[in-house]
Structures are given as structure tokens and as C-alpha cells.
Amino acid sequence: MMKKLVISLLFVFVFTYVSAQADTEILKKSTDWVTSLELNDKGKEARLADVISTHLTAVKTWHDSHSYTMVPEGINPKTGEKLSADDRQLIVDSTIPKTVHEALMTGLRKDLTEEQVEAILDKYTIGKVDFTMKAYREILPDMPKEMDEYILNHLKQAREEAVDYKSMREISAIFKIHKTRIELYLYQNNYNWKAIYKEYVDSLKKK
What we know:
The chain contains nine helices and no strands. By secondary structure, the chain is an all-alpha fold. It folds into two domains: 13-113, no CATH class; 125-207. This is DUF3826 domain-containing protein. Keywords: Signal.
């Protein structure tokens, strides 16, 4: 009886400690992101750090409490391939209430310009929009303005969707969805993306 009690108390202690550590890390991350904007306004900084930490906590809590096993095994109806554990986790994580995202965006826009909001979203996604767009522009240096805008808009959409996922693997998966749509768009506009990309890679190897 005493042994079971000790084990139970130890479990509670470990769980509490780990949770406290996670909360501390989230608060530090939120504060660092806001500080990077150099707002020089303590009131705004405090509100924004709270908005971001609340969102990060909600995303983490949803992910941790929703296992991939909640999605039955099956196939991807578009490809016919069996759903992987990562696919199923992405699906269940995508069911996070929309209010979580809405609260983040409303809170950010209350105190920030759109440019500053984008800077925070870039922190969530480690700057994927910028370096991915840079790659597209390097591979397709002569693409029309409307094509450039289409690609950039899709990457920004991917970024905003991706902030509601906990892991970098999931964030990359969201960007991959939009990159697939971009490649389809390129094909529809007579750009053979695979051939163009291969030619680009081959040219790099020759340097």
C-alpha cells in the first residue's frame, strides 16, 4: 500500500515538474519573440506575450491530449496510400477549435502592424516563407509578377495555418501541402516544375 502511494506521489511530482518546465519555456519563448520587435512599450509587450503564450499552451495541450490513434487507420482518399502515424496526428491536430487561432490573430493585430504580425508568425515557422520564396525566385528568376504574388500568398497562407501545430514536422507538412498546390499551378501555366528544378540542381552541382 505504502509503495503504491510513494509511486503515485512520485508520478504527481514528476508530472507537475515537467508541466512547470514546459510553461516556463513557453513564457520565455513568447517574451523573446515580442522583445525582438523592439516595441519599447511594456503594456503592449505584456499583452502580446500573454496572447502568444496562451496560444502556444493551447496548441501543446491539444496535441498532447489528442493521440494519432484517435484517427482510425485507413487510406488517403486522394492517393490511395495508407495513412501513416504522422498523417493521422496531423488530421487530429487539425481539429483544434478555430477560436484558438482567432484569439491569437485578434490579439496580435490589436497591438501590432501587419508587418509585425508577420514577424511573429515567422518566429513560429522559423522563417519558412522567406527562405522558400527566395528559392522559388532563384529557380524561376523570370517568373511574371502575378506568379510571384500567387506563390508568396500561398506560402503566407501556409504560415498562418502552420502556427496551430506543435511540431516542426507538422509545420513542414502544412507547407508541403501548399507547395504541392504551387507546383500544380506552375504546371497549369506551362512550367514543368520537376524539369526546371532538376536543371537548377544540376547547374549547382557543376559549380
